[in-house]
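Notebook B, p. 112. Complex prediction, attempt 2.
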Amino acid sequence: MEIFQIVLFIFLIVCAISVSFSRNLLNSIIIFMSYSLIMSIIWILLESPDLAITEAAVGAGITSILFFVTLKKIHAIVAINEDKEDKHVNRKGGGK
Amino acid sequence: MSRLLSEEEYRKTKAFKIRRWYRGEKDPYLGKVEMKPQKPFTEDIKTQKQRIHDEAILRRNIYDIEHNKKLQIFSKFYKVVSIVFVFTLIAILLYVVSYLPPVGNAANPDNNEVASKYIEDGMKDTGAVNIVTGMILDYRAFDTLGESNVLFIATCTVLILLRVDNRSKKKEEEENDRLYEPKNDIILQKVAFFLVPMIIIFGIYVILNGHLSPGGGFSGGAIIGSGLILYVNAFGFKKIERFFTQKTYKWICFVALLFYCLAKTYSFYCGAHHLETGIPLGTPGDILSSGLILPLNICVGMVVACTMYAFYAMFRKGGF
């Protein structure tokens, strides 16, 4: 069980670091989702199932969905496929 | 409305003026402030050219990074300072952590009589098998009331920020409701058809068994809310509006919060002298036990579920 916990903790740290280094916002949200799932398993191992249920429902479910919707609302998901220069031009045009 | 004074005389009294001011029938600035229509913005060609020229120079100075020495130095300086700042912060935090008492030490300040009282007398006082729920909804019920109100206020804030106020636009958007939904996705609809009832029943189970098993109002409400969001994603807003509209949300939140307030704040208004509720605690382990905890759990669960769905609906559509 100790080894299992250590593996989970390492995965947690990797997730936390890769969220901030991921360039694609969509990817970072999905990594954040997996972070929440692992966190809920760790809550169970720490003998607090109350928190585990809440973390799974709120952290992995609703928060990520709200992030997705926000990205869609600010048109960040569409802009991913475009080139960098295109984005630059768009931003300039939009700013005026 | 019957009045002793005649209409003419009533118009001269102060009561009439106050009433008129309160109803906003009279604009106090109207006729007293000089009003002019705003001049249209005109610009002759010379200044316009000058402005465009200035903007071009400015843009060249900003975006031409390779020839801008100051900007290069600044960006390098910025990077170095941010790294130094982050590492200093990490060092300070780790240094402080080394002063924290070790985990599980019996002499730690958190192992005081409060915790032992909760663990020893929790079941006897509250009748809840799940000590956590007993603590949240009985000993610390006032905190939970604050949390529910915070959720409600958060919804109000999101409503202020994201509401689509334009009536005509809203009507147009409602006519093609599918704008916001994926096209009739058969896989999603079939999966949702089987999953949504199960998710919602599981959420209800978690809420109703909050005092017996892990879970409670907040987690169960979040589960129901995610079920509702899945339903909306699969079938669209038109279907969910058959049973859940803004009016439903308003009434559910209002009734739940009001019941919570009336049920729990009496002891705080009366000085919190451990007043008797008069509701029997029942045998621990039964579903109808532990006094007020079950109805309070239901209240919190309804508020949370509605809030989660409301957030989604407002982000998606700017309304319900």
